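Feature request, filed as a ticket because there's no other form

It would be nice if the structure record came with a short human-readable summary line next to the tokens. Right now we just get the raw output. Example of a typical job, pasted below so the devs can see what we mean:
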Amino acid sequence: MRIGVPKEIKTLEHRVGLVPSSVKELASRGHEVLIETGAGKAINFTDRDYEEAGAKIASDAKQVFESSEMIIKVKEPQPQECKMLREDQILFTYLHLAADPEQAKGLKDSGCIAIAYETVTGPHGHGLPLLEPMSEIAGRLSVQVGATYLQKHLGGTGRLIGGVPGVKPAEVLIIGGGVSGFHAAQMATGLGANVTILERSNPRMRFLDEHFHGRANIVYSNIDVLERYAKKSDLIIGAVLIPGASAPKLIRKDMLSTMIPGTVFVDIAIDQGGCAETSKPTTHDNPTFIIDNVVHYCVANMPGAVPLTSALALNHSVLPYALRLADEGWKAALKSDPNFRNGLNVCKGQITHSAVAQALGMDYTAQPAALAA
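Raw output as currently delivered:
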């Protein structure tokens, strides 16, 4: 199979779809890999590194899209990239379509087969193996950036996250105890903050309680609890996720006026629309905005801040799936594995993931029916 990797063009996105070691694995199986020149330059992977791994170098994105049967990316295709996609071409990347009707329309119009990393499920339908590495990084980063924006000159309360002897540490509220919330809690407790995790799954609460052994408070989440804890928190991290669907708006606008002036809110769920009514996507070059004295950090590609770590971690998870698509073809690979098939979001003009279709208000075609067609 001919596989293409264009350079990422989203604002300040420096990750790359395939690193040289992944290219070498694909090339060793007889697949052709075409890399846009400079695609890995920002994280110190040169064109020569890719050539030595067995890739060919393309002069621009147009050549990559025109010459490839499968496109492997990191972030969702931008409008100009959607226009370069064609019928029957495979797109394998993060899509986050629930909050992006324009992209969904572009993918439908192209006739491509769009497989989203974030909705591929693990064994027995549990877990999201291609989202987890980025959730881990976003969770850890959320505390790092949250601690930074707590500084007074950046709009925060002026409280040191870990405190000092005689002065209490920051109060950190984490909404959601999944992968990103768990890793946020690990970082926050490690820095000495007072951490509370709000969660609704009883099995997950038991896991969190056993893991943290009192180093974090595990509290069942409801509206009343969220309102009470939000009022006394210095840093709030939104870490909720409903696979494929829009994030629920748990932080209402009227709650902001009840919070401590300078509270920092980091919305990890912004890729799926955000979990606050006041959230809107931001970028690494302009990451925050303030509403009612609450600092909002809503960068839609948080792991892009540490692109070397992120690209390597993502490739470790994506490569086995990319090999199956290349070796078997997309139909055979998805037919044989219902968990992999859950990644199919758009197929030849049809929305094939029910949560995505519901979020967008578009017609839904079941994945088996799309595959049969």
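Something like this underneath would help us a lot:
The first helix runs from residue 20 to 28.
The mean pLDDT is 96.
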